[in-house]
Amino acid sequence: MSDWKQECVNGTATFGVTCPFCGYGIYPRILAETIESNYKRHYLVQCSSKGDDCRKHFFVTRERDYSLSTHTKIAFKTTVFPMELLNGYRIKDEIPSDIRQDYAEANNCKKIEAYRACVSMCRRTLQNALIDKGADKKKRLIDQIDAVIKDEQLRGIAHSTRIIGNWGAHEQDDELKDVDWEKASATLDFTWSILDYIYVQPLKLKKIRDSISGKEEDDSE
Ligand SMILES: [Zn+2]
Questions:
Q1: 88-201: what CATH class?
Q2: Phi (first) and psi of residue 191, to 5 degrees
Q3: Among candidates 76, 8, 85, 17, which has minimal Cα distance to 47?
Q4: Residue 18 near residue 7 (C-beta atoms within 8 A)
Q5: 0.70 cut: is pTM over it?
Q6: Ligand 1 centre distance from Cα of residue 83 (Å)
Q7: How far is Cα 187 from Cα 56, in angstroms, rounded to an integer?
Q8: Tens digit of each residue's pLDDT (9 = 90 or more) over 108-130
């Protein structure tokens, strides 16, 4: 038999998962287990989150991952069904709620392989963030980007997001076919860089500045 350890102690799993319903990281209660092979097991589990008393049932598959295993440690790939979707409330709250929801939706579109919808949502996220930061609502996205984003490299990233997002939004001959996993992933990363630059970094910087401003005199040498 395999060297796979028992993964259940007193009814509770020894591995952690994120509940697809309430979003809490938990050690689920194991209700049933089937062993497919020495390398793969399936569990029917119940959420054990005390946060909002979720108690929902879902499935977990655990598979040995040889690319990550070493001779001292067995690594696993853990998959949860139904798939966990990203909730906007779990994204940094420095970002306005509407924009977080748009970004979460873009993420979820990628997870279900809706790549065109993903890049369209990225474009929308970008545009709403720019309007929130003072861009003229009536102008085109191309001009809104130039008006708000001063950093040259980031402006290039924003324009790429705009261009790929357009492929998703408008029917344009065969270019639609070009939005694949790779482009959707890159566009999501680009969108996050822009949200990070617009919302997250300025607050982080302010916090650090506030915390060192009182000590400046001591450190002047
Ligand atoms: Zn739950």
A1: mainly alpha
A2: -60, -40
A3: 17
A4: no
A5: no
A6: 13
A7: 33
A8: 998 888 999 999 999 999 999 99
Mean per-residue pLDDT, 87-101: 84
Tokens of 50: 């005390």
Give the rounded distance of the alpha carbon of 50 from its chain centre. 24
Give yes or no for a cis peptide into 28 (omega within 30° of 0): no
Distance from C-alpha of 194 to C-alpha of 103, rounded to nearest angstrom: 11
Q: How many helices (H) and strands (E) does the chain have?
A: 6, 8
Domain assignments of the chain as residue spans, ordered by start:
8-81, 88-201
17-53 CB burial, b ≥16 within 10 A, e <16: bebbbbbeebebbbeeeeeeeeeebbbebbbbbeeee
Which residues are found with C-beta within 5 Å of the ion, ligand 1? 19, 21-22, 47, 49, 54
- Strand-pairing partners, residue 130, are none
Instruction: Supply 125's token pair.
Output: 């996220």
Structure tokens at 193: 């860089």
For 96, residues 6+ apart whose C-beta sits below 8 A from its C-beta are 132, 199
- Tokens 């287990």 belong to which residue? 33
153-176: burial string, b at 16+ Cβ within 10 Å, e else? ebeebbbebbebbbbbeeeeeeee
C-alpha 113 – ligand 1 centre gap (Å): 25
